[in-house]
Amino acid sequence: MSTAEEQPVLLEIDRGIATITLNAPARRNALSAAVRTALAERLAEAGADAGVRAVVLTGAGTVFCAGADLKEIESGVSGGPSIPELLTAILELPKPVVASLNGPARAGGLGLVAACDLAVAPDDVTFSFTEVRIGVVPAMIAVVCRERMDPRAMQRYMLTGETFDAAEAARSGLITACCPREELAETVEGLLAGFRAAEPAALARTKRLLAELNGMPRDEAFVLAEQVSAEFFASPQAAEGRRAFFEKRPPSWAL
Q: Does the keyword Isomerase apply (predicted)?
């Protein structure tokens, strides 16, 4: 059995939260075939675990993720899930995913950040779409970044490859918030407390609904929203939620 140090991605579950850690610090947590494979496996495990309410994605060492493993690409190594498959796994996971950045993100690492539902970074962390500066295109990650970022900011940083800070990442929509490094754990925990208080099925359906509504014509969106609303208002979970509200107690699912 391999030790934790030998595993490219770690999974730890505590009080309903699955923490997934990219564990290749010597390679700046680059997305090698081994890391992509292990990350997809850990995401699937967390998604299938009924006791997991949400996922935190972070990195070991001083870098969150450096993007593609250029040494591996140069050597011709292939295999593992593709970047689109990996980003889709995060987007379609039936539980919220929070990126808790331990350090800077570059290139494909920004795609991971954008695919997550929420993202928090220390204010000393930096970001950069470095692709154009090494002669390639940030093609696949542009698909997820366009759903998060201000269009002008996205054009600027993808076209220039310049580095920007966490405050600018928050302003542009790439991340949810930034904070002093010493407050990162507390800030993330504040988000996780909300997930622990949420009813699991309602939480999962809300995540999926937000994705479905993106770009949907208004009339179609209202039809779908009405269907979802009626289904959940008539559910046993909603009845329990109302009882808990009137009885001034936590609902049965609260952790």
A: yes
> How many domains does one find in the chain?
2
Question: How far, in Å, CA of 246 to CA of 229, rounded?
Answer: 21
Please spell the DSSP secondary structure of 149-207, one letter per residue: S-HHHHHHHHHH---EEHHHHHHHTSSSEEE-GGGHHHHHHHHHHHHHHS-HHHHHHHH
The answer to whether residue 254 sits within a structural domain is no
* Tens digit of each residue's pLDDT (9 = 90 or more) over 170-221: 999 999 999 999 999 999 999 999 999 999 999 999 999 999 999 999 999 9
Same domain flag for 120 and 234: no
The answer to whether residues 209 and 159 belong to one domain is no
Nearest to 58 by CA among 14, 30, 22: 22
Residues annotated as catalytic are: 131
pLDDT at 1: 47
Looking at the fold, whether 144 and 230 belong to one and the same domain comes out as no
End of a domain among 152, 175, 195?
195
pLDDT at 4: 66
48-74 pLDDT, tens digit each: 999 999 999 999 999 999 999 999 988
